[in-house]
Automatic annotation (TrEMBL), chains A, B:
Claim: Lyase is one of the keywords in the record: no
Similarity comment: Belongs to the prephenate/arogenate dehydrogenase family.
PROSITE patterns: PDH_ADH
Molecular function via GO: NAD+ binding; prephenate dehydrogenase (NAD+) activity; prephenate dehydrogenase (NADP+) activity
Enzyme class: oxidoreductase
One example of a Gene Ontology biological process annotation: tyrosine biosynthetic process
Pathways involved: Amino-acid biosynthesis; L-tyrosine biosynthesis; (4-hydroxyphenyl)pyruvate from prephenate (NAD(+) route): step 1/1
Catalytic activity: prephenate + NAD(+) = 3-(4-hydroxyphenyl)pyruvate + CO2 + NADH
Protein name: prephenate dehydrogenase
Organism of provenance: Sphingomonas changbaiensis NBRC 104936
Keyword line: Amino-acid biosynthesis, Aromatic amino acid biosynthesis, NAD, Oxidoreductase, Tyrosine biosynthesis
Source domain of life: Bacteria
UniProt keyword NAD, yes or no: yes
Chain ranges of the Prephenate/arogenate dehydrogenase domain: 5-293
Amino acid sequence: MLPFARVSVIGLGLIGSSVARAVRQHMPTVRLTGHDADPTVRATAERLQLCDDIADTAGAAVTDADLVLLCVPVGAMGAAAAEFAADLPADAIVSDVGSSKAGVAAALRAALPDAQIVPAHPVAGTENSGPEAGFASLFHGRWCILTPVEGTNPAAVARVEAFWQALGANVETMTPEHHDLVLAVTSHLPHLIAYTIVGTASDLEQVTCSEVIKYSAGGFRDFTRIAASDPTMWRDVFLANKDAVLEMLQRFSEDLTALQRAIRWGDGDALFDLFTRTRAIRRSIIEQGQDEARPDFGRSHE
Amino acid sequence: MLPFARVSVIGLGLIGSSVARAVRQHMPTVRLTGHDADPTVRATAERLQLCDDIADTAGAAVTDADLVLLCVPVGAMGAAAAEFAADLPADAIVSDVGSSKAGVAAALRAALPDAQIVPAHPVAGTENSGPEAGFASLFHGRWCILTPVEGTNPAAVARVEAFWQALGANVETMTPEHHDLVLAVTSHLPHLIAYTIVGTASDLEQVTCSEVIKYSAGGFRDFTRIAASDPTMWRDVFLANKDAVLEMLQRFSEDLTALQRAIRWGDGDALFDLFTRTRAIRRSIIEQGQDEARPDFGRSHE
C-alpha cells in the first residue's frame, strides 16, 4: 500500500525535483503533478519529464492531490500555500521540506487554517540548485525530521513518515523548536561560517583571489562548497531561524576566542586536547553512515 | 635526467610515505632511504616496503643522500635536522614539506648552518595520518610552494622544483612571509574554524552529540573532515604561524560580527549579496582543477 496516490510538488528546484525523481523511481504508480512559480523552471521540468503533469498555477496543481509538498525557500512558504488554499482538497495532507520549522509551521497554519499540516525536513542536499541538479537517490540513508504539533492526526503523520521511508530516508520526529536548535548547529551555523570565511578570503589586500583559489586544497576549498549553496534559500533560513542561529553563533564565537587566546599565549596543550577530541566525532559520523569513509570525501586524486 | 639519485625521507607519515610512493612510481631508479623517529612507524614502513632501506637513525638515513626531505611536524623540524647534521653530505640539498615556512626555514638554518636549504610546502593532504594513509597520486595537480631565501643557489631551487614536478605537482615560488600569510587564509584559518565548530557542537547541553552526528549531513559533516586531521601537526602549525593566523582570525571575526548584526536586524539584502558573491569563488576553484566538479565533492549517494 502506497501512502499517497496523487502527489503535488510545489517548487521544482534541487529538492523538489529530487523528490519527483525519487517518487518516480520508488512509487511509479503515483500520479505526480508539479508546479513552480518560475515559467523557465516549469519549461525545464516539462522537458525533463519530471512529473506526469506540470501545472501553470499552484491552484491547478493541487486540485486532486492527497499530498501537497511545498519545496520553496522558507520565506516563501506562506505565500505559496496561500496561492493554492482555495483549491486544496479537504482531505489532502500538506507538508514541506523547509530547513527551519517553527516559522514555517506558523506560516502554513496561517495560510491554511483548516488543513492537515505535517511539516518535514529531509536533511539532504548538494551545493547545486535548480530542477536539473536533482537526483533520485538524494535522500537515501539520510534523515528526514517531522515536526507535527499537538493535535495533528497521527494517521497523517504516519503517512508522511511512510512516504519518506519509501524514498529511502530514515524518519525522526521532534518538536519544531528542538528541530530549529539542532539544525542551527548541524547546518545553519556551518553555512554561516562557510559564507563568512569565503567572504573574508576574497576581501584581503595582502593575498589575491587568484592565490586563494590556487592554494585552496589546504582546506579552504571544503568551505567553498557549502558557500556555493542557493543564496535565496539561505537568506531565508537565517532570517527564519534567527534566535537559534544567534545563540549558536554566540557559543561558537566564545570558543573561537578561547582558541585565539591559546594561540596567542602559546598554549599547545589546549590546542592538542581539542584537536584530539574532535577526531572522535568524525569517526562516529562515518560509523553511522552519515559520511564517506574514504579519505578526502572520496575525492578523485588522479 | 632525474633531479636527484638518492633521496632520504625523514618522517614517514601521510606526506612522507606519499612522497616515497610517488618517487617509486615516477622515478623508479632513485635510491630511496627512509627514517622515522617512531620504531612502530619504521616497522610499518618496512612491511609496506615504502623505501629501499629504512634506517634506524636519522644520521644513517642521510649519509649518501643528495636530497634529504624532512616530513615531520613543523615544531620538530629543527630537532630532526640537528639529529643528522653531522652526517649530512656537503653537497646534499635539504628540503621539507612543512605547512609554515618562515619559522621552519629559521630552524633548519640554525641546525644546519652550512647546508643548501630549499624549504617547500606541497599543498596537499587528507584527514588521515600515518604511513598507511599515504598514496602516490596525492600531489597530482596540486601546488607545491618553494620559499628559497636570498643567497640560495638557483641550481638547488631548480632541482627541488624538478623533483616536485616529477611527482605531478605544479610549482610556485614566493617569500616565506608571503607563504605564511597565504596559507593562514587558505589552510590554517579553515582548520582552526573547523576544529572550533566541532568542539562547540560537542559541548552543547540542548543538543546531544548523537543528534549532531545523525543530522550532520546538513553541512556540519564537511567540517568534521579537516577537524580529524593530525593533532600534533596542527598544534605546531598554529604555534609556528601565530602572527599570520591571528591576523586572519581577526578579519574573520569582524566579518562574522557584521553578518551576526545583519541577521539580528533582519537585513536580508546584506545576506543575499554576500551569499551571491561567494558562489563565484567555488566556480573558479573548480575551473582551475583545484576541486571536484561533481556535486557534494563527488560523494556517493547510493
